[in-house]
Amino acid sequence: MKTIKILSLVTLVVVMSAFTVNKIAVADGYKVGDVAEDFKLMNVDGKMVSLSNYKDAKGFIVTFTCNTCPYAVGYEDRIIALNNKYASLGYPVIAIMPNNPDVQPGDSMEAMKKRAKEKGFTFPYLMDDGQNIYPKYGATKTPHVFILQKTAKGHVVKYIGAIDDNYQDASAVKTKYVENAVNALLKGNEVPEKETKAIGCTIKV
Amino acid sequence: MFLVLALIVSSCNDKKANDASNVVKAGEENMIEVANTDLEVYDFNGFQKFLQKKDDKVYVVNFWATWCAPCVKEMPYFEKLNQEYKEDNVEVLFVSLDFPHLYESKLKPFIKDKNIKSKVVALNDVDMNTWIPKVNEKWSGSIPATIIYKNDTSKFYEQSFTYESLETELKQFLK
């Protein structure tokens, strides 16, 4: 009980000091059901992007990903496919690159631009400049997906985890976690599997 | 063809009993495939025994991959630990999560070039959502991650280590 009290206090402090969020927040981050804050981050086209820019969206597939993680690269085509399928249905992909480019030069804005062009990303690919956003979400790795649903009280987190259950071979996937979640939300149903685990690359700080 | 492919790359999943026989075959294939080399490859069911030994030894099990820079950075500390505490009944095990198609071109050359002395096994099991929580409920899936255990006592770390911090944790198991 005491632990819970301390934890809630820590959470409160972290939330209240949103602008000075640091590594402490990584341990917390959003849980399914929490309201996610909006952000304003630089896209590879030089423009700033916020969730509030998307007036017609029903929600978002927020995906923390990067250029340099083999798991993230392995999922690039599937992330593009997700956006192609769901953007028009109201759930666009918003990709955020959480690594510190000073530590991981392969994830610099220039490198992100290059990668987005090579792969023909159809979604924004944003730099988490200052690394303030990923700790709020509680992203710990790339790729790491957070599905948000737009509601009267804000962007509610509906799913946290992996894209599907086979990082090695897209053709051998048995369960498409993200698609199942978005399909359920579009039908007004409960997300069948709200949290999944997958190996990913640590976010470089 | 699609189904065959799915079964070959998939791994043991005890929930799906009807798949079991095929999956076991896939597992055996893995073992045969590497029989003429010195890399042991396991699906999670096969691997689990490395987390469940009860022989009074302290096991330091590190999950890593050649593509994971922080993992590679801390490997010398685990190697040193393995060397220095051998006589204290401590054993380090490196569990590689490298992509199977890179075992030959990346993983094996890495083990050879870096002259890794601790035991290395490869874990090849795509159904991560099933096995990650079995390693530890708290594991989000990022690597490096490490388990130190002795018989029924274990501690899980989703973090990087220095030699000093690793030694400090190990010492708790040596008391």
Strand-helix topology:
The complex is a heterodimer of chains A (205) and B (175).
Chain A: H1 2-16, E1 35-36, E2 41-43, E3 48-49, E4 59-64, H2 70-86, E5 93-97, H3 109-119, E6 125-127, H4 133-137, E7 141-142, E8 144-151, E9 154-161, H5 177-186, E10 200-202
Chain B: H1 2-9, H2 20-33, E1 40-42, H3 44-47, E2 58-64, H4 69-84, E3 90-96, H5 103-113, E4 119-123, H6 128-135, E5 142-143, E6 145-150, E7 153-157, H7 163-174
Parallel strand pairs in B: 1-4, 2-3, 3-4
Antiparallel strand pairs in B: 2-6, 6-7
What descriptive keywords fit this protein?
heterodimer; A: 205 residues; alpha+beta; Glutaredoxin; eight-stranded mixed β-sheet; two-stranded antiparallel sheet; 5 helices; 28% helix; globular; B: 175 residues; alpha/beta; six-stranded mixed β-sheet; 7 strands; 42% helix; disordered N terminus
Describe this protein's structure.
The complex is a heterodimer of chains A (205) and B (175). By secondary structure, chain A is an alpha+beta fold. Helices cover 28% and strands 20% of the residues of chain A. Chain A has one domain: Glutaredoxin (3-Layer(aba) Sandwich), CATH 3.40.30. Chain A has helices spanning 2-16, 70-86, 109-119, 133-137, 177-186; strands spanning 35-36, 41-43, 48-49, 59-64, 93-97, 125-127, 141-142, 144-151, 154-161, 200-202. The model of chain A is unreliable at 14-26 (pLDDT under 50). Chain B has 175 residues and is of the alpha/beta class. Chain B has one domain: Glutaredoxin. Chain B has helices at 2-9, 20-33, 44-47, 69-84, 103-113, 128-135, 163-174; strands at residues 40-42, 58-64, 90-96, 119-123, 142-143, 145-150, 153-157. Chain B has a six-stranded mixed sheet with strand order 1-4-3-2-6-7. Mean pLDDT of chain B is 84; it is low at 1-36. Chains A and B meet through strand 10 of A and helix 1, helix 6 and strand 5 of B.
Summarize the structure.
The complex is a heterodimer of chains A (205) and B (175). Chain A has 205 residues and is of the alpha+beta class.
